[in-house]
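Slide 14.
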Amino acid sequence: MSFFIEISGIAGAYAMADEARFTTSDGQRMIMRTHMALALATTENAAAGILADAGFAPTEPRPPAYEERGSLHIAPELARDQQWVNGLVTGLGGAPDPSLCYLLSWLVGTNNLDRWFLTRGADTDQVCGAVTAALGLPASICDTRVRWAGESLRVSADEAAALTRELKAEGRLFGWNKYDDGTVSILPEDPDSPRLRTI
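Slide 15: predicted structure.
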């Protein structure tokens, strides 16, 4: 049985406990990457040990087991994580620990969980260093991580244009979303992002 299938029952329990937030408009419940990360962190595996050593303390209580997997769907971002992990496993060869591969996927991509782990007490620099070392990868991978700011900013279109110019001038990444009322939500890269330390 694959690691993903083994841990998805626990992730499903977290998804069901979080159902109000992660139910689509047509009533489908989604297992999000945060549910999978909670499942990984609260079971016995190498990644859970690294997270615990780095201070990770989830705020979400562990829910009772959930077995009805058919009523849950995998979120697209989690499906992409699975493909990333499959590529890493193939590239590394042998049989690398899948828990470490998932944890690395949640730390180094631009759509990462760095801020989520930080808000639950984890020293993500320590986590990334330990994971890359355990997988036999260069520590420099950790220098490519993007850390997003804790809060997005909702501003007018004119303010958004000025803010994005400023962020670009600083070399900071950002995500944005435009609303029907003409306002724009911007999530900037944190000024202390590991990626910016190397620029």
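Speaker note: The mean pLDDT is 87.
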